[in-house]
Structure formats: C-alpha cells, structure tokens
Design brief:
The protein has helices spanning 16-22, 48-52, 57-61, 65-79; strands spanning 29-35, 38-44. It is elongated, with a radius of gyration of 22 Å. Strands 1-2 form a two-stranded antiparallel ribbon. It is an alpha+beta fold.
C-alpha cells in the first residue's frame, strides 16, 4: 500500500511503485472511479500517444522523404513577406 496527499488544488502524485506496477508514464490517461467508499484508478492504455502513431508517415514515403518536405517548408518561410 502507498500513501499520497492531496494538494490545495486537489491534485495527487501517484507513487513510483504504483506507476511502475500499472505501467504509467507522463502523459498517459487514467480513469478514476468511485466504488462505494474507495477511489479506483485505472490506466487507459493506447491513449493519445498510440492514436498519434503513424501520423505523417505518407510524408516519408514521398520521393526525397521527409527531407524534401522540410526543405520545401523552410523555403516557403524565406519567401514569405513580413507583415
């Protein structure tokens, strides 16, 4: 069992032992549910990070890959007129 204290803003730090057991990392999403007189914390694996996996992969499949996309984007910045 681990003990944690609520801050004045009702925040709590999840002890390292519990984070390791649940496989939690910064940015993970959790669900906190009330079960009679106790709070139950449950991780939601496959959250935001998993949904972002593969985003933009088509860029790397183009001729020249991401390098050419970055080069074109940087060139467009240089050609912009200042306000």
């Amino acid at each position: 069992m681990s003990v944690a204290k609520l801050t004045s803003k009702f925040q709590v730090t999840i002890p390292a032992e519990i984070r390791r057991k649940l496989g939690l990392h910064a940015g993970d999403t959790i669900v906190i549910d009330a079960d009679e007189d106790k709070a139950v914390l449950r991780p939601i694996h496959g959250g935001h990070t998993a949904r972002m996996r593969g985003l933009g992969k088509s860029v790397w499949a183009r001729p020249g890959g991401g390098e050419s996309v970055l080069r074109a984007e940087r060139e467009s910045w240089e050609n912009e007129r200042p306000y």
